[in-house]
């Protein structure tokens, strides 16, 4: 497995503000990597460092085997970028902006351009001044997706798109993955990341708090269970990894840590399971554990590597 | 007020907010106006401290067409105070006019384009409230300018009545241009077009006033600057021309308010047409993009300075016939004709305007960066030098185009008038002589952009500096190094002085050095948005 992006200990400050505080990020070639975090976590700053638009204060950053600051132009020929907040030239039409960005990047495929304009339902003759936020976003998406490159850096690319266009976008990303391209997808839309990404890095306060495949991350979360048993269950509260237990006769509700599931299920089996509903953890819950429970912040594992 | 006129509901709150937003910008404009008057008053009083000095001065400028074209009607020159008003009023009026244009432009269409007006109008704010707020903000700024000028002139020892009339005339002329800009904001298609049309109106007012004063016809009455100067501060103190200014402002603002009801938010009365669905081959490189973004401004400046060149060229013909005072001739260098003295002054003025254009072209790069539009370009396979090089090329070649066009216009008019074809080449070369000095000013802006992007706007201070030292070089009382620090001081005053290559080469080298500093700084620093 080769590495498309490798970041370790990246620090970037603006005056007294530490936007990035020792960020680590590994993106393998050919994967769709989710870059998740709340607003202000440092995702866009990290991406701008990766693009050589900002200079790292310290840390090691490698992009497609090169140094993003020193080799910016050579590297940019091999990647396409969609900014989080797309601003265009007010007097330039959408079609002109797509062509300009495509040409500056190294050329785009006219057939793909036409197909993407059609799929995203974008009128290229309108001046950017009259575009809505979603339409500006589409301009940047068409310019990036019509480029034939190795790496796509997409910073919250679906903000402003309607659900239909989001589905179109997801189709396009799946197509990129099928072609073996690498995608770094920054987002705070969890459903999008769950639908598209092979692996995920979660960033908060300028540091990666977790990183791994979705399966691996689910081990870190709790599974919710509702169980009806033939005989009353006892001793559940004493088991490690059991939380929020409530027993109502033969009906038990509980949350179980990923690594304690086996022991809990064995224990329940002894009471004769009649029905069992288990809800797998969602990334929402994963997020809540990291960003909602400030009390447990110190106990959060710093990073889990695959 | 707001209870009976729902269309202006919320103006009070918006006005307080607008003044808060402009709490640095407007005081700087006001102080600039007051400072110009103060400097002029102090230096004039030092220079013309005897009646004989004053009489010599009055005789020389009163018969100097260049002075009249630049300054205004030669009235009240029998007192130092009148001399101060003569020397400075036309410049301070332009400062006040530009302040009004930029204030109205920012608070109307620029706010609309940025989406801020939409946010505000969705609250309990009337349709006309943002426009009224802009006009009131400009009115407060103009009033402050009037008071500051009056107080500054009085403090330097000039008669209080005339001083405050001088201030009021400057503020009143500024108000008229606030009205002009408010009207332009309703008609034009974009914020840049609004500022462009209003700026052109200011330029037209300057030219109409200059032609009217030199030719002695009634054309001054077509110019709000002419109205302001018709007050004759310190010599007659006529207040009634101010009523013309106020009436015009009221009419323009009312018309703007009426047109506001007929246009959509964010759009002008002129409907936009669909554009090309694909980019032409011209839009392929960073330079192509810079040219596309700046071509409108370049065309406007070229047309404007070409017209100015035509006007100066035709006025030059009147110099010999209208101003034949032998005393004035005696003051000039032997070999030089009055016409050449006139042309030397007007060419330097044109070069100052070209320098202002050059700085605005450099600052366009900063706008691209701060508004986030440089980011997608630099994220493509475009290096920092190529991106900045595109805008720098426009900022360095643009003034050459502008000076070439203006010099060619003046030269053509003179060649036809004198029947001497050699005049064309001579005046074209004279106009281009100023190019290296203009490049130095542009390069200062580029160096600031590269080193301290957030302070790049300070490049306007460099323009102000060369303008003040060039226009007031003669009567100034400041030390020699103040003049010598300006690149314009090193440019030979062709055609009255001989053309010399050495200073021009030196200026070009300085410009190249500053350009290198700017490029190196930009390569090393972060992209600074917002």
From TrEMBL, chain A:
GO terms for molecular function: ATP binding; ATP hydrolysis activity. GO terms for biological process: response to antibiotic. It is a peripheral membrane protein. It is found in: Cell membrane. Gene3D superfamilies: P-loop containing nucleotide triphosphate hydrolases. Keywords: Antibiotic resistance, ATP-binding, Nucleotide-binding, Transport. PANTHER family: ABC TRANSPORTER ATP-BINDING PROTEIN, ABC TRANSPORTER ATP-BINDING PROTEIN NATA. This is ABC-2 type transport system ATP-binding protein.
TrEMBL record, chain B:
Keywords: Membrane, Transmembrane, Transmembrane helix. The chain crosses the membrane at residues 26-48, 80-101, 131-152, 164-184, 239-260, 296-315, 341-363, 394-416, 428-451, 458-481, 501-522. Signal peptide: none annotated. The keyword Transmembrane applies. It comes from the Bacteria. This is ABC-2 type transport system permease protein.
């Amino acid at each position: 497995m080769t590495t498309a992006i490798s970041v370790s200990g990246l620090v970037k400050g603006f005056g007294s503000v530490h936007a990035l505080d020792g960020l680590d990020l590994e993106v393998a070639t050919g994967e769709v990597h989710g870059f998740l975090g709340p607003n202000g976590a440092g995702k866009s700053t990290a991406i701008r460092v990766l693009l050589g638009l900002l200079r790292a204060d310290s840390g090691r950053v490698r992009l497609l085997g090169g140094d993003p600051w020193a080799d910016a132009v050579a590297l940019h020929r091999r990647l396409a970028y969609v900014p989080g907040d797309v601003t265009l030239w007010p007097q330039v039409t959408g079609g002109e902006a797509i062509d300009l960005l495509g040409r500056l990047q190294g050329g785009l495929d006219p057939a793909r351009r036409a197909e993407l304009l059609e799929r995203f339902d974008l009128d290229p003759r309108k001046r950017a001044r009259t575009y809505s936020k979603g339409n500006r976003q589409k301009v940047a998406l068409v310019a990036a997706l019509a480029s034939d490159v190795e790496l796509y850096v997409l910073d919250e690319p679906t903000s402003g798109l309607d659900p239909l266009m989001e589905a179109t976008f997801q189709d396009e990303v799946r197509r990129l993955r099928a072609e073996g391209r690498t995608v770094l997808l920054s987002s705070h839309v969890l459903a999008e990341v769950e639908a598209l990404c092979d692996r995920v890095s979660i960033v908060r306060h300028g540091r990666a708090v977790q990183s791994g495949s979705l399966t691996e991350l689910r081990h870190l979360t709790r599974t919710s269970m509702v169980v009806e048993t033939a005989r009353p269950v006892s001793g559940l509260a004493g088991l490690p990894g059991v939380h929020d237990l409530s027993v109502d006769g033969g009906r038990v509700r509980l949350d179980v840590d990923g690594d304690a599931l086996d022991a809990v299920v064995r224990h329940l089996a002894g009471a004769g399971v009649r029905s069992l509903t288990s809800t797998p953890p969602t990334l929402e819950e994963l997020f809540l554990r990291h960003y909602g429970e400030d009390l447990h912040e110190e106990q959060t594992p710093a990073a889990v590597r695959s | 007020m707001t209870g009976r006129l729902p269309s202006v509901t919320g103006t009070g709150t918006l006005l307080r907010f607008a003044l808060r937003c402009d709490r640095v910008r407007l005081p700087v404009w006001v102080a600039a106006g007051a400072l110009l008057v103060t400097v002029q008053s102090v230096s004039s009083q030092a220079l013309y401290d005897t009646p004989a000095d004053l009489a010599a001065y009055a005789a020389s400028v009163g018969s100097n067409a260049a002075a009249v074209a630049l300054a205004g009607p030669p009235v009240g020159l029998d007192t130092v105070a009148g001399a101060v008003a003569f020397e400075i009023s036309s410049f301070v009026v332009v400062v006040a006019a530009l302040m009004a244009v930029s204030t109205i432009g920012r608070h109307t269409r620029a706010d609309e384009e940025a989406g801020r007006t939409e946010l505000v109008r969705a609250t309990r704010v009337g349709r006309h409230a943002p426009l009224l707020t802009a006009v009131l903000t400009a009115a407060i700024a103009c009033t402050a300018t009037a008071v500051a000028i009056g107080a500054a002139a009085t403090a330097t020892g000039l008669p209080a009545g005339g001083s405050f009339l001088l201030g009021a005339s400057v503020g009143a002329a500024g108000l008229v241009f606030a009205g002009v800009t408010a009207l332009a904001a309703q008609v034009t298609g974009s914020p840049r077009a609004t500022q462009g049309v209003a700026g052109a109106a200011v330029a037209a007012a300057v030219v109409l006033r200059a032609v009217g004063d030199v030719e002695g016809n009634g054309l001054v009455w077509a110019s709000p600057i002419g109205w302001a100067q018709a007050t004759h501060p310190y010599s007659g103190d006529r207040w009634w021309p101010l009523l013309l200014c106020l009436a015009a402002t009221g009419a323009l603002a009312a018309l703007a308010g009426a047109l506001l009801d007929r246009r959509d938010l964010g759009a002008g009365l002129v409907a936009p047409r669909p554009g090309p669905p694909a980019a032409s081959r011209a839009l392929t490189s960073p330079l192509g993009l810079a040219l596309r973004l700046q071509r409108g401004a370049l065309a406007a400046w070229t047309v404007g300075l070409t017209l100015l060149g035509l006007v100066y060229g035709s006025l030059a013909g009147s110099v010999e016939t209208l101003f034949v005072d032998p005393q004035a001739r005696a003051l000039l260098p032997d070999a030089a004709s009055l016409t050449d003295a006139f042309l030397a002054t007007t060419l330097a003025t044109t070069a100052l305007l070209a320098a202002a254009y050059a700085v605005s072209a450099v600052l366009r790069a900063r706008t691209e960066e701060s508004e986030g539009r440089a980011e997608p370009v630099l994220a493509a396979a475009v290096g920092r030098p190529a991106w900045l090089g595109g805008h720098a090329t426009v900022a360095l070649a643009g003034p050459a185009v502008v000076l070439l066009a203006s010099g060619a216009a003046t030269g053509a008019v003179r060649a036809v008038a004198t029947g001497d074809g050699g005049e064309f080449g001579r005046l074209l070369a004279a106009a281009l002589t100023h190019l290296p000095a203009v490049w130095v000013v542009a390069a200062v802006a580029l160096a600031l952009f590269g080193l301290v992007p957030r302070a790049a706007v300070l490049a306007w201070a460099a323009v102000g500096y060369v303008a003040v030292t060039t226009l007031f070089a003669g009567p100034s009382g400041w030390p020699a190094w103040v003049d010598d620090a300006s690149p314009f001081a090193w440019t030979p005053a062709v055609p009255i002085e001989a053309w010399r290559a050495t200073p021009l080469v030196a200026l070009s080298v300085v410009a190249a050095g500053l350009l290198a500093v700017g490029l190196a700084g930009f390569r090393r620093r972060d992209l600074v948005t917002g």
